[in-house]
C-alpha cells in the first residue's frame, strides 16, 4: 500500500486499512523499516543527539500528510466519531493491553513472611532469589510485564480467570533479545521459571503461589484516528528517530543537551539485583556503530561516578558532573553499558538502604530515633520550595491513603507539606502539629533560592521556639513500639518530668533531615549524618521516586509499601523501553497527544480519574507535562513553527460534571483521558435490593461520558423526543469530541507507581516527537530573576527607606502603595 505522501508501508496492507498487529520483524517492531544490516535509520557514527543527525517534525514527509488527514477529520462527516465508533473492526484494533503478574510484599510465600525487608528492598523477594523482585523486568521473571505483543512467547497465565483475550491482546513474555525469543516459542510459564530460578524450593514457591495480576487496558477507539492515521503517526515516529532517542535516554546519553546531562530517573526504581548488563543493544543503539562493534561506555578513571566518598548518613556521595557523549569510544563487546549506570545504581540502592533503616527506626520508636523530649516521631512535614518537588509525593500520599494496607501502616502517623512561602501556608501546616513529635524533611537540590531558605528558616524557628525548653518525659523510655507501657501497674515507676534548655544543634540533629545534592549542610545547622543523597542529574519534576519522595512516604507508610510503588514504576519503565510501539501505552498516548495538539489544533487536555484518591494526579501530570514541554525552540535552538506542550486540567470523575463537562460537551473541544478501576480500594456492599454498588454507580460515568462526548445528540433526536422548538438548539450536542479510556485492575501501590511512570514517559514521547528538550526548564528563570530584583528593593526600602527606582511606572506605583501600607501599619 502507498501512503498519500508517496512512501510504501507494507504493514498497512491488511485489506481493510485498520491497524495491522501481526507480522513483527526480527527487531520486534511491526513493520519497522530497517537497513540491510538490521539497524535503523542513518548508519553514521553520530549520536542521535548530534544536530547533524537531527530531523525536525516539519521536515519529514508525514508532516503534510498528517495535516491533510486532520483537515479531513474536521470536515468529513463520514469521519465523525459517531460513525467511527460503530466500526467494530476499527475499534478492536485501537486498543492495547499491558498485564503484570507480580508478588506483593504483603505475601509470605516469597518473602519469608516479612513482606520484604533489608537485603531485598521490600519487593517480595526470596532471599535466595535476589534476581527476582515483585516487579522484576521481563528478563528476570517471565511471569510479569506481559502485554499485547504479537512477537513473543505466549504465556498461558489466564486460565485461572476465564478471561477471553482476543488474539491482538494475547499476553506474552517479551524478551529484549529477539533472536533468543524466536527460538523459545514453545516455552511455557513454568519453563521460564526453570530457566530463571534454579533453586528447586524457590521454584516450587513460585509455581504454587497465586500471583497478583494487574491489567492496564488502553482503549483509544474514541480518538479521531483510523488505522491509516496511526500508521502515519508510527511512520512519523520513525522519521524523527523516536526509537533511537528513547534508547539514548535509556542508556544514559546526554539527552538533556542544553545542560549537558543524562536523564536517569528510570534508574531510581530499578530493583536490587537488576542486571543492567543483560540489556542487549537495541537496533536503535547499534544504528550509529559499524557492524560487529558496540559503543564503549566504560570511562575508567574519567568516569565521574568512578570514586565515592561515604557521607555520614550511610549513603554515598556522587559527583554532580558526568562525562560528555563525545568521550565515548568504540570497542568489541557484547553489551553497551553507560559509564554512570553501574555506580549510580549502587549509589541509589545505598540511599534506599539508608531510607529503609532510618524509616524503620523512626516508625518503631527506637530510643535513639526519638525527639529531644523522648517522644516518638509520628508526624513528618516536607519543606520544599514552590518549584514543585513536593507535588509528586503529595499525589502518591493521597493515592496511598485509599489502600487498606497502606492506611493500616500509616495509622497514627501524619504527613504534611510546606512548599509555599505564603505565611498562611506555614500557619495552616503547623497549627495542629506537635513539634515534639515532628520530623522536618527539608528538600532542596542546593538551597539556592530565597523561597527554599525562607521556608526552612521559618520551620526551624518554629521548632526551636517550641523545643528549647520543652519538658522531657522520662516515662517514654518504657513504652513498647505500639505505645503501651512495658511495666505493670503495680511496678510502674513514678512519673519523672524535667525541664532542660537545649541548643539548636541538638534539635536539628533529632528533628531535621535533608534531601539534597550538597555535600555539607553545616551552614544550615543540619548535621551531615542527616543527609539523604540525591544527584545533580535528578530533575525536580521527575524526582518522586528518589529520596525526595521515598523518604517521607516510607516514614508515613513503611518502606515495604513504598517499594511496591517503585516496583510498579519499574514495570512501566520496562514496558515503555521494550514493548513494540503499537502496543506501548506511553508511546500511544504520546502519539495521540501530538496528533491532537499539533495537527488537530486542540490545545488543552483533561485528565479525569474515577477515584477521589487520584485527586492530586492532575496537578502532578500538569507539573510534569507543562514544565517539560512548554518550549518555543527545538533542540538546535531554532524556533518551532508549531506550538509544543498542552494545557492540562482535571478533577476526579463525579466532581467534574458541572465544572468541566458543560464546557467539554458544548464548548471547546478538549481531548480527555478517562482513568477507571475494575475494583474499588474501599468497596461498599450494594444497598438492600440493589444490584449496583457505589463503585458500579461511579464507573457508569466512566463508561458513559466518553460515548456521550463521541456521539453527541443531534437535532433530529430532540425532535423525536418532543423537545419544544425553543429549546432544541440549546440541547444539541455536536459530539465528535475525542477521548481515551484507561482501565486498570485496581488502585494499589503497584498501579500508583505505574501511573507515575506512564505519564512521565508520555511526556518524554511528545518531547522527542516535537524535537524539543523536555528536560530543562529555563522558562521558570525569568520570573525568578525579576522577583529577586523586587526582593532587593523591598529589603532596601524596609531597612533604610530607599525610594523605589529601576522599574516601569506600573510596577513602581504598585510597590509604593504596598510599602506605604506597611509604614501605616507598622
UniProtKB/TrEMBL annotation:
Gene3D superfamilies: 1.10.1390.10, Glucose-6-phosphate isomerase like protein, domain 1. One of its GO terms (cellular component) is cytosol. The keyword Isomerase applies. One of its GO terms (molecular function) is glucose-6-phosphate isomerase activity. The keyword Transmembrane helix does not apply. Pathway: Carbohydrate degradation; glycolysis; D-glyceraldehyde 3-phosphate and glycerone phosphate from D-glucose: step 2/4. It is an enzyme of class 5 (isomerase). It catalyses: alpha-D-glucose 6-phosphate = beta-D-fructose 6-phosphate. Its EC number is 5.3.1.9. InterPro entries: G6P_Isomerase, G6P_Isomerase_C, SIS_dom_sf, SIS_PGI_2. Residues 1-39, 283-315, 479-505 are annotated as: Disordered. Keywords: Gluconeogenesis, Glycolysis, Isomerase. Residues 27-39, 283-310, 479-495 have a biased composition (Low complexity). One of its GO terms (biological process) is glucose 6-phosphate metabolic process. Residues 1-13 have a biased composition (Polar residues). It holds the Pfam family PGI. Belongs to the GPI family. This is Glucose-6-phosphate isomerase. It comes from Fragilariopsis cylindrus CCMP1102.
Amino acid at each position: 500500500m502507498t501512503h498519500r505522501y508517496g512512501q510504501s508501508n507494507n504493514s498497512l496492507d491488511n485489506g481493510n486499512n485498520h491497524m495491522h498487529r501481526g507480522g513483527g520483524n526480527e527487531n520486534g517492531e511491526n513493520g519497522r523499516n530497517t537497513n540491510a544490516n538490521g539497524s535503523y535509520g542513518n548508519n553514521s557514527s553520530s549520536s542521535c543527539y548530534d544536530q547533524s543527525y537531527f530531523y525536525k517534525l516539519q521536515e519529514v514527509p508525514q508532516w503534510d500528510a498528517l495535516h491533510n488527514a486532520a483537515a479531513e477529520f474536521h470536515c468529513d462527516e463520514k469521519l465523525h466519531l459517531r460513525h467511527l465508533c460503530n466500526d467494530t473492526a476499527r475499534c478492536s484494533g485501537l486498543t492495547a493491553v499491558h498485564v503484570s503478574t507480580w508478588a506483593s510484599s504483603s505475601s509470605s510465600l516469597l518473602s519469608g513472611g516479612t513482606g520484604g525487608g533489608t537485603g531485598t528492598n521490600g519487593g517480595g523477594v526470596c532471599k535466595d532469589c535476589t534476581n527476582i523482585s515483585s516487579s522484576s523486568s521481563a528478563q528476570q521473571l517471565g511471569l510479569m510485564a506481559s502485554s499485547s505483543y504479537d512477537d513473543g512467547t505466549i504465556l498461558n497465565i489466564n486460565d485461572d480467570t476465564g478471561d477471553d483475550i482476543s488474539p491482538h491482546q494475547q499476553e506474552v513474555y517479551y524478551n529484549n533479545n529477539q533472536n533468543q525469543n524466536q527460538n523459545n516459542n514453545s516455552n511455557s510459564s513454568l519453563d521460564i521459571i526453570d530457566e530463571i530460578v534454579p533453586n528447586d524450593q524457590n521454584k516450587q514457591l513460585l509455581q504454587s503461589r497465586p500471583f497478583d495480576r494487574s491489567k492496564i487496558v488502553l482503549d483509544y477507539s474514541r480518538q479521531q484516528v483510523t488505522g491509516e492515521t496511526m500508521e502515519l503517526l508510527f511512520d512519523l515516529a520513525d522519521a524523527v528517530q523516536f526509537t533511537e532517542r528513547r534508547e539514548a535516554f535509556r542508556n544514559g546519553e546526554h539527552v538533556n543537551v542544553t545542560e549537558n546531562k543524562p536523564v536517569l530517573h528510570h534508574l531510581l526504581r530499578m530493583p536490587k539485583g537488576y542486571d543492567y548488563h543483560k540489556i542487549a543493544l537495541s537496533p536503535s543503539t547499534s544504528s550509529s556503530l559499524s557492524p560487529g562493534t558496540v559503543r564503549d561506555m566504560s570511562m575508567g578513571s574519567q568516569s565521574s561516578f568512578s570514586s565515592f566518598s561515604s557521607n555520614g548518613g550511610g549513603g554515598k556521595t556522587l559527583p554532580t558532573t558526568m562525562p560528555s557523549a563525545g568521550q565515548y569510544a568504540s570497542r568489541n563487546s557484547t553489551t553497551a553499558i553507560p559509564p554512570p549506570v553501574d555506580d549510580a545504581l549502587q549509589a541509589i540502592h545505598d540511599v534506599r538502604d539508608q531510607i529503609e533503616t532510618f524509616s524503620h527506626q523512626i516508625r518503631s520508636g527506637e530510643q535513639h530515633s526519638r525527639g529531644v523530649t523522648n517522644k516518638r516521631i509520628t508526624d513528618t512535614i516536607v519543606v520544599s520550595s514552590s518549584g514543585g518537588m513536593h507535588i509528586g509525593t503529595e499525589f502518591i500520599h493521597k493515592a496511598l491513603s485509599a489502600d487498606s494496607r497502606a492506611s493500616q501502616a500509616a495509622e497514627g502517623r501524619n504527613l504534611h507539606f510546606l512548599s509555599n512561602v505564603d505565611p498562611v501556608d506555614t500557619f495552616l501546616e503547623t497549627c495542629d502539629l506537635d513539634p515534639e513529635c515532628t520530623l522536618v524533611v527539608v528538600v532542596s537540590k542546593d538551597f539556592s533560592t530565597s523561597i527554599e531558605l525562607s521556608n526552612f528558616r521559618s520551620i526551624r524557628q518554629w521548632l526551636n521556639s517550641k523545643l528549647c525548653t520543652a519538658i522531657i518525659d522520662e516515662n517514654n523510655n518504657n513504652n513498647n513500639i505500639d505505645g503501651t507501657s512495658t511495666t505493670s501497674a503495680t511496678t510502674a515507676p513514678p512519673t519523672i518530668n524535667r525541664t532542660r534548655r537545649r541548643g539548636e544543634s541538638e534539635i536539628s540533629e533529632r528533628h531535621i533531615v535533608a534531601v539534597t545534592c550538597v555535600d555539607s549542610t553545616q551552614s544550615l545547622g543540619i548535621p551531615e549524618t542527616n543527609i539523604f543523597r540525591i544527584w545533580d542529574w535528578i530533575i525536580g519534576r521527575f524526582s518522586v521516586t528518589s529520596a525526595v519522595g521515598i523518604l517521607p512516604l516510607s516514614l508515613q507508610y513503611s518502606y515495604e509499601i513504598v517499594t511496591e510503588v517503585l516496583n510498579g514504576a519499574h514495570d512501566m519503565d520496562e514496558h515503555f523501553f521494550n514493548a513494540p510501539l503499537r502496543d506501548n501505552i506511553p508511546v500511544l498516548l504520546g502519539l495521540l497527544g501530538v496528533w491532537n495538539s499539533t495537527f488537530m489544533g486542540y490545545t488543552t487536555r483533561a485528565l479525569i480519574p474515577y477515584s477521589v484518591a487520584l485527586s492530586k494526579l492532575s496537578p502532578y501530570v500538569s507539573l510534569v507535562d507543562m514544565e517539560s514541554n512548554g518550549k518555543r525552540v527545538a533542540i538546535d535552538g531554532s524556533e518551532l513553527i508549531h506550538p509544543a506542550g498542552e494545557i492540562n486540567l482535571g478533577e476526579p470523575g463525579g466532581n467534574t460534571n458541572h465544572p468541566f463537562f458543560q464546557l467539554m460537551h458544548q464548548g471547546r473541544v478538549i481531548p480527555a483521558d478517562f482513568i477507571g478501576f475494575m475494583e474499588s480500594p474501599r468497596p461498599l456492599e450494594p444497598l438492600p435490593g440493589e444490584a449496583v454498588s457505589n463503585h458500579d454507580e461511579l464507573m457508569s460515568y466512566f463508561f458513559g461520558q466518553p460515548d456521550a462526548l463521541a456521539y453527541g445528540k443531534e437535532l433530529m433526536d430532540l425532535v423525536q423526543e418532543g423537545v419544544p422548538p425553543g429549546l432544541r438548539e440549546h440541547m444539541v450536542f455536536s459530539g465528535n469530541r475525542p477521548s481515551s479510556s484507561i482501565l486498570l485492575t485496581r488502585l494499589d501501590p503497584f498501579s500508583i507507581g505505574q501511573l507515575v511512570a506512564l505519564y512521565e514517559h508520555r511526556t518524554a514521547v511528545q518531547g522527542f516527537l516535537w524535537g524539543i528538550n523536555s528536560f530543562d526548564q529555563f522558562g521558570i528563570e525569568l520570573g525568578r530573576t525579576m522577583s529577586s530584583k523586587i526582593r532587593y528593593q523591598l529589603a532596601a526600602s524596609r531597612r533604610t527607606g530607599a525610594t523605589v527606582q529601576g522599574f516601569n511606572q506600573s510596577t513602581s506605583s504598585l510597590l509604593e502603595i504596598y510599602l506605604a501600607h506597611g509604614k501605616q501599619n507598622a
